[in-house]
């Protein structure tokens, strides 16, 4: 399985050995969007959702998820994260944009933690608003930036 680091020569799934990697400052930024009916976004903005402040709860859910990524993704290393920040912003009249920035000083990157934070924050928005809008869509979850480590900097086109 050439090029895939989570498989050995026989094709078995393995946790990558990072013991020989340098400890460096590493940052990952991921983003995604929840697209909904304009009335749903208006209810979020007006704090008219019965379950509470949607954006505040989703922010906390994303932070908590980043810290537990290794429990959710089988081959991720547990990491002592230095920082997790989530920005949830409304765009236009039907979108919540979610951006997660995760930092660590360690031997492996935090891309999965950033992606997990965005995913769980988006799912939380969906969960809190599904009673009024089951047609919401979670879209475009992707890594937009990564720095640190042997592979250097990645910025999404």
UniProtKB/TrEMBL annotation:
Reaction catalyzed: (8S)-3',8-cyclo-7,8-dihydroguanosine 5'-triphosphate = cyclic pyranopterin phosphate + diphosphate
Alphabetic keyword roster: Lyase, Molybdenum cofactor biosynthesis
Signal sequence interval, chain numbering: none
Location of the Molybdopterin cofactor biosynthesis C (MoaC) domain: 15-149
UniProt: substrate binding residues: 75-77, 112-113
Keyword Lyase (UniProt): yes
Keyword Transmembrane in annotation: no
Pathway in which this enzyme or protein is active: Cofactor biosynthesis; molybdopterin biosynthesis
GO biological process entries: Mo-molybdopterin cofactor biosynthetic process
GO MF entry, a single one: cyclic pyranopterin monophosphate synthase activity
Active-site residues per Swiss-Prot or TrEMBL entry: 127
EC number: 4.6.1.17
Function in brief: Catalyzes the conversion of (8S)-3',8-cyclo-7,8-dihydroguanosine 5'-triphosphate to cyclic pyranopterin monophosphate (cPMP).
Subunit structure: Homohexamer; trimer of dimers.
Protein family: Belongs to the MoaC family.
Alphabetical list of PANTHER family matching this protein: CYCLIC PYRANOPTERIN MONOPHOSPHATE SYNTHASE, MOLYBDOPTERIN COFACTOR SYNTHESIS PROTEIN A
HAMAP family for this protein: MoaC_B (MF_01224_B)
Protein name: Cyclic pyranopterin monophosphate synthase
Gene source species: Elioraea tepida
């Amino acid at each position: 399985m050439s090029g895939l680091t989570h498989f050995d020569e026989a094709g078995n799934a393995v946790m990558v050995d990072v013991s020989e990697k340098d400890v460096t400052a590493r940052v990952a930024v991921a983003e995604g969007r929840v697209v909904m009916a304009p009335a749903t976004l208006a209810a979020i903005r007006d704090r008219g959702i019965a379950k509470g402040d949607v954006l505040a709860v989703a922010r906390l859910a994303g932070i908590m998820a980043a810290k537990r990524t290794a429990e959710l993704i089988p081959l991720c290393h547990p990491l002592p994260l230095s920082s997790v920040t989530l920005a949830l912003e409304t765009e236009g009249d039907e979108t919540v944009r979610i951006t997660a920035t995760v930092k660590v000083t360690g031997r492996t990157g935090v891309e999965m933690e950033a992606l997990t934070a965005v995913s769980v924050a988006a799912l939380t928005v969906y969960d809190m608003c599904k009673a009024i809008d089951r047609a919401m869509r979670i879209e475009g979850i992707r890594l937009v930036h990564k720095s640190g480590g042997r592979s250097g900097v990645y910025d999404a086109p």
